[in-house]
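Researcher: We are triaging several targets before committing to wet-lab work. For this one, the compound of interest is 2-acetamido-2-deoxy-beta-D-glucopyranose. I'm pasting the protein sequence and the ligand SMILES. What I need is the predicted three-dimensional arrangement of the protein with the ligand bound, expressed as structure tokens, so it can go straight into our comparison scripts without reformatting.
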Amino acid sequence: MSPRRRFNCARSASVALVASASLVNAGPCDLYAAGNTPCIAAHSTTRALYSGYSGSLYQVKRTSDGATTNISPLSAGGVANATAQDTFCEGTTCLITIIYDQSGKGNDLTQAPPGGFDGPEANGYDNLASAIGAPVTLGGHKAYGVFISPRTGYRIDKGHGTATGDEPEGMYAVLDGTHYNDGCCFDYGNAETSNTDTGNGHMEAIYFGNSTFWGSGAGDGPWLMADLENGLFSGLSPKNNANDPSISARFFTAIVKGEPNHWSLRGADATSGSLSTYYDGARPDAKGYNPMSKEGSIILGIGGDNSISAQGTFYEGVMTSGYPSDETENVVQANIVAAKYAVTSLTSGRKFTAGDSVSLQATTSGYTDRYIAHTGSTINTQVVSSSSPATLKRQASWAVRTGLANDGCFSFESIDTPGSFIRHHNFALLLNANDNTKQFSEDATFCPMTGLSGDGSSVRAWGYPTRFLRHYENKLYIASDGGVQTFDATTSFTDDVSWKVTNGFSSA
Ligand SMILES: *[C@@H]1O[C@H](CO)[C@@H](O)[C@H](O)[C@H]1NC(C)=O
Ligand SMILES: *[C@@H]1O[C@H](CO)[C@@H](O)[C@H](O)[C@H]1NC(C)=O
């Protein structure tokens, strides 16, 4: 026997597989397959997860005419063709309607149906994500992640090839470690087929956020935990695992895997370094978790019963058949690092500069004498001109500030009421004093972009990228084109959300 072929069986498959020439350009799912734990679901809007995959990554639907298109990689195994999306969606809004399963098992994720916890749309279905909420680059190529606002969710009820009962499985997801909340539950993984809570052990999914209702880790969060149903677990103790760290990485690799009476949590910065194990041990010592009763649905952005209060961003993720070895996951992490995720601009069009004073003029025909102003705490449009009283001019002038929740976007502070900012609340815009909460910061952060009508700038809500500053009956809302609210009406939408930005009527 030649020395080359003398493989020691105890050596991990992954050592062999990284040495194998055919896996030099491998995708994550090629690596899982080489470890004998193949992907049975592979979801990503940013890149192909198999070296040979050149099929559709996701589908977008544009509001202007209801047409859909599929977005594919630039080349087999490559990054998504973001230009195809940008071209298709120019001058209108687009939603992500399908996240295709690259594994060939048919586990495509679509708009999540109503569940034990009802969705917000008229028919009870969850919202779909904006196609532009999470722009990034991979190796310098632009791509878009899935920005999940509260009430947004994707699902396939009857998964194909997913683990059921106590069967072993693994999963990873690359997430935005800075986009989270404490609502239930920003999940990716295995859940109930009925969209209802069917009891302990009926789920096994990645959770990311700072909910402390069930469990928590070290520090203030956010944490990676496992949603095993009726509990987010950071380790053996249902309450706390001090080895489960707070996450601050902008791009975060999250791993959950489980097999009979054994499960693990692992994580890493998705742009550098290797995985750490936060927990590796027995199932929770409570009825229902050993053995597990996994059902095999797949969810993204919601809880198993369709709980819709959470937010987060998903870039890519897979689920496997079988319990992946740590070694296989380590080479998958190396592959993710090599994909070179990086941030990119959240804005486009007219340049906004912190410190400037601006006024925003309506461009809708018949309303062009009106500017965004406020009357007390109500944000409205008012007729303003250079000969208006100084008081009104100040009410219609806004100091541009670095975005309170994201420094890639902006906040608008009142010139006549310093310390108060434009923020949205129940989709209406208000002028409120900054209370320095995470909620306020997020509700007061807006991302300007080239005007949807082709004129001026449109300004989307950072936390709800399907929604733009819109005047409707002379009041201001964050509106989505063709959404369920009256102020979401399609008529004159693109004009109503396009603003001519001028120097402020008043600068102090
Ligand atoms: C990307 O999409 C654009 C617009 O649809 C298209 O013209 C171009 O050929 C695509 N690029 C590749 C490499 O397929
Ligand atoms: C989650 O984090 C935010 C921001 O730090 C904080 O305001 C909120 O209270 C935290 N939630 C919990 C449940 O600790």
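Researcher: Any quick observations?
Model: The two ends are 84 Å apart (CA to CA).
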